Amino acid sequence: MLPSAQANDSLRIDIQPVVDSFAICLGNSAVFAARTFPADLPITWIPDDGSVFPLSDTTVEITPETSGWYYARTEQESCVALDSIFLNVVPIELSIDSVPPQCAGAIFALNATANVDGEYFWMPEGLEGPNVIADPQDTTRYTLSFTSSCGTVTEEILLFADENPSVSIFCFNPADTTVLVEGFETNLTVLPNDTPGALIEWNTEETSARIVVKPQAPKTNYSVTVSYPNGCSRTADKGLEVRPADVKMPNAFTPDRSDNNFFRPVFDGQMEVLSFEVFNRWGAQVFNNENPEGWDGNYQSKPAASDVYLYRIEVERSNGARQVLQGNVTLIR
């Protein structure tokens, strides 16, 4: 508080609230009241520059544009009393660190600072916080909105990203399906693959645009990196889910009577038959995988009798795992 310029013990003026300085956001207002002793003396506010708006005989609203002193003045019988308050106007100072150009698809670190507390929101990715990681796929303008008790301000930054085409992996089968049956092969193709000078490298160590793969159950992941002449690169990933192959054995067959002429395993997927044996009820082997179509119901070049026969079959999956199936089948004539 400043002392009265001319005062006696009976004349005084006080600004409420009673503080030496008061912080205010740029563009905001503060309301102050003054009271005189003796009461009800006329009050003049200084400076009279348009930033002070009277609300009543004792109350004003102040909207300062810059920091400075404000005074309440009263007088009585040629004596003058003053009180003062310093209004500290706080503008929002928001800045974004510069970011050097990089390759499209690389990580860009965005760092912002402000002189007051507030919330940071980055668009177009909807990132929050003063320090965020952006992943622009080409040159992109980012807008930062900063909101504090002083209001909202914005800043922009243009991230220069070398605009190489984004790559993708196409699974060359109907509908580009990513669910396959164990044991089957499929083609994977990187797109685009016509950029002059671009180098292709798969995680299988192959370097051609199209590769043939035989994924293993339950899932196999593939990735490809395309490196461009400007030193930038793009990477794509694709996971192929693999449904395990299945094998089923019929429980009956009818040689020479219908389409069900052969007894053989039925595969859903691809497996290799390592051994396939059929025995009669006395343990004699009547078939030992001589015919790739299966057992035709003959034994020693003669029709085997209608009966129940035992079988044992061993198969190998595409990943090398082996499986043995045993059971019985009824031959019906």
Can you characterise this structure?
The chain is mostly beta strands and 333 residues long. The chain has 4 domains: 12-90, Sandwich (Immunoglobulin-like), CATH 2.60.40.10; 94-162, Immunoglobulin-like; 168-243, Immunoglobulin-like; 246-331, Immunoglobulin-like, CATH 2.60.40.1220. The protein has strands at residues 12-16, 21-25, 30-37, 44-46, 52-54, 59-62, 68-76, 79-90, 94-96, 102-103, 108-114, 118-123, 127-128, 131-134, 140-148, 151-159, 161-162, 168-172, 179-181, 186-191, 199-202, 210-213, 219-227, 233-243, 246-248, 252-253, 266-268, 272-279, 285-287, 298-299, 302-303, 307-316, 322-331. Strands 26-33-32-28-29 form a 5-stranded mixed β-sheet, with no helix packed on it. The protein is rod-shaped and about 145 Å long. The protein starts with 11 loop residues before the first strand and ends with a strand. The model is unreliable at 1-7 (pLDDT under 50).
CATH topology of the largest domain: Immunoglobulin-like
How much helix is in the residues? under 10%
Strand proportion: over 45%
What is the terminal separation in angstroms?
119 Å
CATH architecture of the largest domain: Sandwich
Tally of strands? 33
The major pleated sheet works out as: 5 strands, mixed
Spans of at least 5 consecutive residues whose pLDDT stays below 50 are 1-7
| Helix count from the secondary structure assignment | 0
Number of domains: 4
Q: Which structural class fits the helix and strand makeup?
A: mainly beta
Task: Round the mean pLDDT to the nearest integer and report it.
Answer: 90
Rough shape? rod-shaped
Spatial order of the strands forming the largest sheet? 26-33-32-28-29
CATH top level label of the largest domain? Mainly Beta
